[in-house]
């Protein structure tokens, strides 16, 4: 890219169904000049295939520019690991766009929604120059999960806490939490909770491979762990999330 700033559009594409992309998102793709598509390596080709399917459905004439997605260094402490990973992603975006010219707006398809436990906005602000950002919201994993289970996110007039598996593992159930939504939990931390806690779990939400389980943790935890391990081995990846309620909370 040149020294001048440019337009970078972050377009939420939902959790696996092309129908999750809003009309605004489809129009943004048609208006974009360049679309950045990550190559996440062997075993994750279906993630790229979904992005290409969405691009085809949009009718965009944008130039597609790919970049290799880096992996995090597990030997580093978590904050440093993530910071370096974000730095490297930004560097690869910058390198890919340098060869793409500056023909107009650049679009990046973001799984889920750019506002929720996604670092695309943070990474974009690492670019030089910082682009003019536009965010097109998408369906979140939380929306897809509650819809799939025909479940309301909150109880009547009740609060909702959104957290990560890491925080649940390190700090336990948040004080005064009634409904807890847990994202990014590769360790199945729910198994450490009281057996009568209720869980609504889903993986590959919105995709043909969607899997759902719900019930008391004491009854379904081991089944979820087994399904998760088998499915991840088969696909090479998995995206899942879950909602928890204490047994005393109403549905």
From TrEMBL:
Its EC number is 2.1.1.152. It holds the Pfam family TP_methylase. The keyword Transcription regulation does not apply. It is an enzyme of class 2 (transferase). Pathway: Cofactor biosynthesis; adenosylcobalamin biosynthesis. GO terms for molecular function: precorrin-6A synthase (deacetylating) activity. InterPro entries: 4pyrrol_Mease (IPR000878), 4pyrrol_Methylase_sf (IPR035996), 4pyrrole_Mease_sub1 (IPR014777), 4pyrrole_Mease_sub2 (IPR014776), CobF (IPR012797). GO terms for biological process: cobalamin biosynthetic process; methylation. It catalyses: precorrin-5 + S-adenosyl-L-methionine + H2O = precorrin-6A + acetate + S-adenosyl-L-homocysteine + 2 H(+). Residues 8-220 form the Tetrapyrrole methylase domain. Keywords: Cobalamin biosynthesis, Methyltransferase, S-adenosyl-L-methionine, Transferase. The keyword Transferase applies. This is Precorrin-6A synthase [deacetylating]. The lineage of its organism: Bacteria, Pseudomonadati, Pseudomonadota, Alphaproteobacteria, Rhodobacterales.
